[in-house]
Amino acid sequence: MGTLTLATYNIHACVGADDRFEPERTVQVLKELDADVVALQEVEHHEVDGHDLLDYLAAKTGLTAVASPTLLRRTRHYGNAILTRLPILRVNRVDLTLPGHEARGAIDITLDGDGRRVQVVATHLGLMPWERRQQVRELLKLFHIGSANIYVLMGDLNEWFLWGRPLRWLHAHFKRPPHCATFPARLPFMALDRLWVHPRKRLARVEAHASDLARVTSDHLPLKGIIEM
């Protein structure tokens, strides 16, 4: 494997800029990305053609799904997920919820990247600055250098303070990746979605996926990264 393609995408429960629930548009954007690993946020567990939404997305893209709902309801659970075409070696679901705030979490997964162990942590952080500081501290504890060959943290960080402590801590740990605006999708100016890789030299490219379809399918653009293996 020469390269590994990663993406993170807040799918907004497959509700587009026109307020229409159209999961097939999300499928098409995922196919445009053609990623080996995709972190999804705001996965609402609707039923689509007799299937759970995440299972529907997995079947349509040919990827394997790992669910990690943060809100468990009698119907339509809600939260994070990963889609991947790589063999899965380990899955750890992490609760990042703080008292009095919306449930948040992360998926800590180890994948087999053609003989290289790839640790991917995918998350969706809280809305309050002090909440994100606590959550980033917990996320950094998940990375133990030497347990894998490549380490990835990606997701919707909800961090709009460019010089805030969460981003400074993450840049210090992983080194700074490119800054790509992904929100709002139609005219993006905020880099809410992020992707870090260690070792940094393996991160060849990061870019917002700004196709015409992606601009209307969710309120976020996907963020795509290429790793040299």
Can you characterise this structure?
It is a single chain. This protein is of the alpha+beta class. The chain has one domain (3-228): Endonuclease/exonuclease/phosphatase (Deoxyribonuclease I, Chain A). Helix content is 21%, strand content 38%. It has five helices and 13 strands. It has a six-stranded mixed beta sheet, with helices on one face. The protein has a five-stranded mixed beta sheet with strand order 7-8-9-10-11, with helices on one face. Strand 5 and strand 6 form a beta hairpin. The longest helix has 12 residues, at 129-140. 44% of the residues are buried.
Question: Which labels suit this protein?
Answer:
single chain, 229 residues, alpha+beta, Deoxyribonuclease I, Chain A, six-stranded mixed beta sheet, five-stranded mixed beta sheet, 5 helices, 13 strands, endonuclease activity, hydrolase, Endo/exonuclease/phosphatase, endonuclease, Endo/exonu/phosph_ase_sf
- Basic shape: globular
Low-confidence sequence ranges: none
Name the beta content range: 35-45%
CATH architecture descriptor name: 4-Layer Sandwich
Give the SSE string: EHEEEHEEEEEHEHEEHE
Number of separate structural domains = 1
How far is the first residue's CA from the last residue's CA?
7 Å
In oligomeric terms, what are we looking at?
A: single chain
Structural class of the helices, strands and pairings? alpha+beta
